[in-house]
Amino acid sequence: MLIIAGSLQVEPAARDSYLSDCGQVIAQARAAAGCLDFLLAADPLEPGRIHVYERWESAEQLAAFRGSGPEDVQTAAILDADVHRYLIAGVEAP
Fold first, then answer.
1. What is the dihedral of CA 10, 14, 18, 21, to 10 degrees?
2. pLDDT tens sequence across 39-50
3. In degrees to the nearest 10, what's the CA dihedral of 65, 68, 70, 73?
4. Are 2 and 56 contacting, i.e. CB atoms less than 8 angstroms apart?
5. Rounded distance, CA 57 to CA 34, Å?
6. Which residues make Cβ contacts (< 8 Å) with residue 75, sequence separation at least 6?
7. pTM, whole model, 2 decimals?
């Protein structure tokens, strides 16, 4: 299993529009083979920050989904990104 997590920075005034435009991408990801969870969410304290959280069964399934990639307009709106891939060897209850 792997997790993609981190944050994106967009113009604060554009964040809600950006997230609204990502609705179809989120739905497509959640329907993709191997996707266990996919979420882009507004940070409650920082107006331009968007949290990224994805959970995938395998790197191959993630790569198959990523082949389509974000639209150019979405990519252009990102001012900064701090997103990392975490490989998970085991899962335990909290």
1. -160
2. 999 999 999 999
3. -170
4. yes
5. 5
6. 69
7. 0.89
- The identity of residue 19, as a single letter, is L
Strands (E) in the chain, as ranges, are: 2-9, 35-42, 49-56, 80-87
Burial class, 15, CB count within 10 angstroms (exposed 0-12 / middle 13-18 / buried 19+)? buried
Distance between CA atoms of 22 and 79, rounded to whole angstroms? Answer: 16
Closest CA to 51 of 76, 19, 73: 19
**Length of the chain as a residue count:** 94
User: Please, which pLDDT band fits residue 71 given cuts at 50, 70 and 90?
Assistant: low
Please give the C-alpha separations between residue 29 and each of 15, 47, 72, 77, in angstroms, as whole numbers.
20, 25, 18, 20
Q: What is the phi-psi region of residue 34: left when phi exceeds 0, alpha when psi lies from -120 to 50, beta otherwise?
A: left
